[in-house]
């Protein structure tokens, strides 16, 4: 007897036996002080194996089990069909749609997913403090007065890792759409926030913040009066003065958007001191106060009049060869620069231009002095340039164009890097500087390639396959590159042919051949990508599959076209009638076949009835159709019965005496695949439904509630009811 598989039911939230009450949880709001939950799990026999474990798993916040988290695992419940799992929420749990499921390991079965649950681990549960820009400064009375059209940023300043949470922001009791840790506000209202721990857990977390009241008013037109000068020499100062004074307002001064003073009443001026490093920047002033909207001025830009820059125009490391010279250069923003070049820390006599011709190795830089301008400035040195003489050079050649061995039909090789190697082992990339200085010669398998004397080479024929290298010469230096192996695919095509593509054991063999002379070749016949061991230029197909010939040409495997051989499918031979034919005695029935080329119909005595696609049948018995489809043959068996002349019975006596125990239908309705028989009980509920009815109802296991019962039947053909009525079952 076959035993059904175990059924694991979905887990459901359960009561915590360690807490008062007996209600199951509806949302999980865990924290460092409470994190204990239970779910109930039931399953149905048969028993699992003795080594089985039941595993409780948690989905992600969207209910997806792509990467489930294990919550609990038990191995001692393999005979308990109803038990509870205990688990704790992971500390990163935050979401509204978590689901759970249970897996068994032996056998491997998975339950349906649970209903969705709101689950949050509350790791921050103190009141939030919010302020402008998260500065930590809460305004007096908690009120900020904004000018019409202006906005400020409110954000928490006491929540660690504030950007890892989602938030509920409110304005005057209305929930806003913003969910991040900061919010830009410009409209009047009472603003406050809480961490979003979901619809159930947020309230119990107690994170509701202080309230900032935003009011709006008209602009006062705050500005900084134009200063005497905005470009200062070292040691100079300039006082910036707000245009609104004497009104008891609170002033805050900013540099590059950052407050540089604390909010102070009547602090309407600020001194910019050029003796302080980094004084340069954009300065603004902001005002606030009773009845005045918070407003920030436009910026005044202060600069260093003595500032200028010096840039090195050449590479940081330059290579010089014997009897050669190279040029170093710098550029500057100074208005009236003067130059002095240095080598190894010492000034080079007479070298006072922006460029320098070099013939010696060493460390070079240029010192630039501003000889004009508004104020004296300190000299500025350029970055160093290291001029080196190499002990040797190295070449690296690579595939410049896309290349795959035995797949590409052309490729360009080229010089990708020249490295100068100093006597101390220091390596410097000098490709840009030195590529045009070398003379080149490409080699193939150690021999020079005639005419290939540039830093790249184009190869477009498989006859050029081999190992390439690039030699170079400059002055007294000779360089040989790394090797680059090239294996291009031949343009030759391999063709195979067959005398058929449909395989049937009864037909002549399918033979696959090639016109290519395989003598002396390395080759392999393959079926579905695997070798089949044939070592001839033709072979007989023994089974369906995808066939090809792979020939090795100059080290590369070249595949032929593919021939797909399929098993013969006789489903294309179709009859226009059911294979069980019923007609009245004395009449005839013509059956027609389609889908084949040739047909032969035989009766049970092997007499030929017809050799066309149709046959007219007059006698009871079995008939066989043989049909040819290509080189294959298909058969069909047809059974002919004379039509029963009794009616559909409406009474049966299912008492087990072997007489009238079953509801037997005439053969016009029974044993026909196109006829559907349905039986209903007295309440109209379907209790039996079968096509190709075998005269087998009621079955021996059918239970009857009463001694005499009335049933209803419906007989359908082609979705149309052709007979219906009642059946009385007497016991």
Task: Please provide a written account of the structure.
The protein has 731 residues and is mainly β. The protein is 2% helix and 46% strand. The chain is built from two helices and 68 strands. The strands form 16 sheets. Strands 20, 22, 23, 24, 26, 27 and 28 form a seven-stranded mixed beta sheet that branches. Strands 30, 32, 33, 35, 36 and 37 form a six-stranded mixed beta sheet that branches. The longest helix is centred in the N-terminal third of the chain and has 8 residues. The radius of gyration is 47 Å and the shape is flat. The model has no long low-confidence stretch (mean pLDDT 91).
CATH topology of the largest domain: Immunoglobulin-like
Pick out the low-confidence regions.
none
Task: Estimate the strand proportion.
Answer: over 45%
Morphology call = flat
Query: How big is the Rg?
Result: 47 Å
Terminal Cα span:
30 Å
How would you sum up the major sheet? 7 strands, mixed
Tally of contiguous helical segments: 2
Percent helix, as a range, is under 10%
What is the count of β-strands? 68
CATH class identity of the largest domain: Mainly Beta
Please tell me the total number of domains: 8
Structural class call reads mainly beta
Average of the residue pLDDT scores = 91
CATH architecture verdict of the largest domain: Sandwich
């Amino acid at each position: 007897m076959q035993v059904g598989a175990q059924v694991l039911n979905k887990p459901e939230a359960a009561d915590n036996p360690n807490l008062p009450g007996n209600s199951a949880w509806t949302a999980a709001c865990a924290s460092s002080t409470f994190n204990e939950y239970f779910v109930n799990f039931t399953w149905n026999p048969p028993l699992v194996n003795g080594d089985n474990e039941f595993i409780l798993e948690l989905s992600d916040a969207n209910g997806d089990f792509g990467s489930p988290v294990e919550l609990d695992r038990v191995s001692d419940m393999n005979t308990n069909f109803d038990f509870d799992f205990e688990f704790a929420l992971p500390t990163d749990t935050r979401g509204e749609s978590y689901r759970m499921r249970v897996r068994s390991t032996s056998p491997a079965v998975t339950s349906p997913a649970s209903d969705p649950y709101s689950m949050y681990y509350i790791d921050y549960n103190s009141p939030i403090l919010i302020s402008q820009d998260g500065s930590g400064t809460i305004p007096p009375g908690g009120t900020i007065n904004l000018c019409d059209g202006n906005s400020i940023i409110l954000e928490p300043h006491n929540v660690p890792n504030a950007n890892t949470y989602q938030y509920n922001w409110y304005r005057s009791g209305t929930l806003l759409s913003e969910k991040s840790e900061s919010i830009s506000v410009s409209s009047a209202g009472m603003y406050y926030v809480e961490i979003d721990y979901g619809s159930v857990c947020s309230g119990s977390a107690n994170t509701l913040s202080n309230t900032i009241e935003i009011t709006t008013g008209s602009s006062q037109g705050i500005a900084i009066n134009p200063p005497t000068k905005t470009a200062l020499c070292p040691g100079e100062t300039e006082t910036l003065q707000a245009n609104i004074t004497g009104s008891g307002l609170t002033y805050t001064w900013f540099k590059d958007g950052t407050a540089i003073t604390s909010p102070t009443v009547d602090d309407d001026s600020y001194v910019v001191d050029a003796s302080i490093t980094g004084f340069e920047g954009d300065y603004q002033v902001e005002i606030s106060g009773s009845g005045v909207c918070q407003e920030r001025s436009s910026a005044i830009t202060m600069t260093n009049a003595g500032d200028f820059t010096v840039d090195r125009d050449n590479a940081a490391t330059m290579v010089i060869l014997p009897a050669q010279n190279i040029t170093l250069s710098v550029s500057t923003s100074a208005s009236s620069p003067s130059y002095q070049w240095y080598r190894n820390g010492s000034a080079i006599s007479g070298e006072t231009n922006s460029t320098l011709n070099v013939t010696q190795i060493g460390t070079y830089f240029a010192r630039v002095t501003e000889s004009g301008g508004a104020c004296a400035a300190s000299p500025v040195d350029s970055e160093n340039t290291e001029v080196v003489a190499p002990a040797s050079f190295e070449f690296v050649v690579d595939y410049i164009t896309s290349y795959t061995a035995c797949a590409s039909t052309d490729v360009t090789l080229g010089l990708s890097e020249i490295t100068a190697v100093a006597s101390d082992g220091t390596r410097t990339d000098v490709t840009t500087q030195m590529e045009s200085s070398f003379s080149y010669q490409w080699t193939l398998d150690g021999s020079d390639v005639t005419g290939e004397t540039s830093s790249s080479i184009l190869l477009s024929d498989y006859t050029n396959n081999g190992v390439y290298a690039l030699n170079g010469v400059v002055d007294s230096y000779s360089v040989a590159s790394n090797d680059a192996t090239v294996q291009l695919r031949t343009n030759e095509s391999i063709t195979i042919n067959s005398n058929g593509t449909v395989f049937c054991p009864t037909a002549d063999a399918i033979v696959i051949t090639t016109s290519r002379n395989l003598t002396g070749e390395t080759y392999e016949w393959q079926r579905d990508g695997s070798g089949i061991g044939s070592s001839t230029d033709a072979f007989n197909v023994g089974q369906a599959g995808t066939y090809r010939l792979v020939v090795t040409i100059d080290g590369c495997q070249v595949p032929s076209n593919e021939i797909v051989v399929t098993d013969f499918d006789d489903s294309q031979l179709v009859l226009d009638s059911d294979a069980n034919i019923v007609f009245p005695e004395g009449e005839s029935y013509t059956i027609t076949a389609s889908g084949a080329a040739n047909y032969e119909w035989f009766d049970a005595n092997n007499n030929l009835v017809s050799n066309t696609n149709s046959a007219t049948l007059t006698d009871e018995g079995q008939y066989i159709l043989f049909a040819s489809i290509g080189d294959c043959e298909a058969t069909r068996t047809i059974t002919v019965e004379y039509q029963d002349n009794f009616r559909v019975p409406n009474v049966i006596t299912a008492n087990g005496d072997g007489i009238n125990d079953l509801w037997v239908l005439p053969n016009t309705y029974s044993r026909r695949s196109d006829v559907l028989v349905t039986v209903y009980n007295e309440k109209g509920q379907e209790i039996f439904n079968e096509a190709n009815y075998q005269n087998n109802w009621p079955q021996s296991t059918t239970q009857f509630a009463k001694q005499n019962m009335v049933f209803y039947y419906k007989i359908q053909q082609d979705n149309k009811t052709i007979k219906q009525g009642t059946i009385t079952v007497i016991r």
